[in-house]
Amino acid sequence: MAKESTEVAIPRDAQGDLFMKSTTTPAGKSTPKTSRVAVPPVRETAETMATKQKEIAVSEFFAKNRHLLGFDNPRKALLTTVKEAVDNALDACEEGGILPEVWITIEALNGGKATAATPEPGKKSKKKSDQPNLIDGADGTDSSASASSIANATRFRVTVRDNGPGIVKAQIPNVFGRLLYGSKFHRLRMSRGQQGIGISAAGMYGLLTTGQSVEIISRTGRRKPAHRFELQLDTLKNRPEILVDEELSAWKMLPDASGGNAPANGYAAWKDAVAATNADPDAEEVEHGTEVSITLEAKFQRGRASVDEYLEQTAIANPHAQIHWMAPDGLQRLFPREVTEVPASPAAIKPHPYGVELGVLIRMLKETEHNHLGEFLQDAFSRVSPKVAKEICDKATGLSTQTWCSQVAREEADRLHNAIQQTKIMAPPTDCLVPIGPQQILKGLLKEIKAEFYTAETREPAVYRGNPFQIEVGLAFGGNLPSDDSARVIRFANRVPLLYQPSACCITRSVIGTNWRNYGTSQPRNGLPEGPLVIFVHMASVWVPFTSESKEAIADYDEISKEIKLAIQECGRKLNTYIRRRQRIAREGQRRHVFEKYIGEVVMACEKMTTIDAKALYEQLQAIAQSRTATADIQFDENGNPIRPAPSGGRLDGDDNVVVIETNQSDAIADDDDGEADAGNGKTLFDGDGDETEAA
After folding, report:
1. Residue 540 φ then ψ, to 5°
2. Cα-based distances in Å from 666 to 278, 414, 466, 663
3. DSSP string for 558-572
4. Tens digit of pLDDT for each residue in 360-418?
5. Residues 667-687 pLDDT 10s
6. Treating both helix axes as pointing N-terminal to C-terminal, what angle do 410-422 and 358-367 enclose, rounded to 10 degrees?
């Protein structure tokens, strides 16, 4: 017999806080009285919220948002650490007038012992030399030799040493243990660093991920002692905590590295050599320089956006630097110095009036030590003469050069700001910029990229938001570059490679926005040009407008994009002339081959029809064929100029910013997409300048 059930309803209480709940129980049993009570939310008041508000240190903010500084994944963190240390080293050497020499060493602290990788049965190992190289790698060596151990490593020690002027003892803790501390933020001159965050942020990341301190050794002169520090960054106060402060009795030079692909114990042998050098009392001591060591969680991989690529591109943009590179897998590589002159030191300039904003102008008027407005304008800004200052004040109603700065209120400052924009003022001085230069760009490209045609151009200085800047472009074409892939764009800002966020960068967008079909290369819609091409673009500026604190992409200003396109077009015209000339040489060679193939048959037919001297006729026809295809005999020197004068001459003749390397592939350039083809098919031929010429 089925059991009866009853349904009991629990009513709400007086406040209505109980929900109706039905329970089904067997007949004769008591019903459990359960209910859910809705707890009203606790409302904050202005007083309770005020007790929770407090100041946040910049170091604490970046510790929680380290991805903003480029430490968002282990592989990128390793690259960012090396990048910040190398950039500081190159800046210090150049400011001290010293030819830079930098040693970069990365040691894997875990992951097991390095062992040679063994290919699976029936499979061949992929060598780097078997892969298409856009930028030449480490002599085509096999980087998989110790991949089994390095791939598992998660903790590395990065050590970067330079031969710069060093850092005084009192400033070492602040430079490496405080964020936003440095000498570059408040001055307008070209430099790699801008914000004073990079190297101290790398030490902070190492402390957060491994708990290890940053180790620094620095020496400022031969007769001065070397100081060694171990310190940590207090993220709550943005202050350094000094754990070790000692004076070294000696600081030895590093032993010379043997480049190439070292054996599995290459790094161990290197450490033994360093220990032996330090123990040798007769070993040469470091006269001046700085060394920083950071232990961090990271991942080491080769390929795109790696430490290898960063150092290769750094060597291209800094041919005056010598770089020693010791990878954690034992691979040693030397990037030799190609230029023996230190770049000129840029001068610091004052801000240009066109770049000042209203709020900044009001603050400057409050902080100035000058009493009168005319003196303030001449001293605070560049390119403001007494005549220009008077013109600005005359256009600002109610103001004059004798107006007291303390009496300029917001309304008067607004009129002054508008008057500045309406006054014609000379562009800012450009001695604050030190471009690489076309010849140095060519030397850097020749050193690292295996191509057959090179050209470079440096534009005249331009201005954005009152900040002067210069654009430089270089092209490398042909040779060993892969012809079935998109062009490679290598981007630089103040000689520093930009490896991440290419699609967000003004440089990439400007390259895509250029019509490369006009210069003999194919280009898909809204894409990069295709073919064996490397495009080098460098922006030099007193303040590079990066899109983020990690300094990975340049903001898309119209003035910058325009200058990049103009520089690309100038280099593209030279590339187009070279491609057309090579195509014409190849076509004429094919025509000669056809002529020579049938000359013998023509002579035999003529000999049968009439009495002639067959040998003389053959020589005459051969001479005619050679004269009609004389272009095929043109040879070029290392500057791209024809050794035998070309019939029409061309833009490459006498151009110092063009280098041509003769290769076996030079005579086999395929026809481009503009309608050129072999003679005899009814289409028009063009000479080296793109002018029409008569077909045979």
Report:
1. -110, 125
2. 52, 62, 45, 5
3. HHHHHHHHHHHHHHH
4. 899 999 989 899 999 999 999 988 999 999 999 999 888 999 999 988 899 999 999 99
5. 444 444 443 333 333 333 333
6. 120
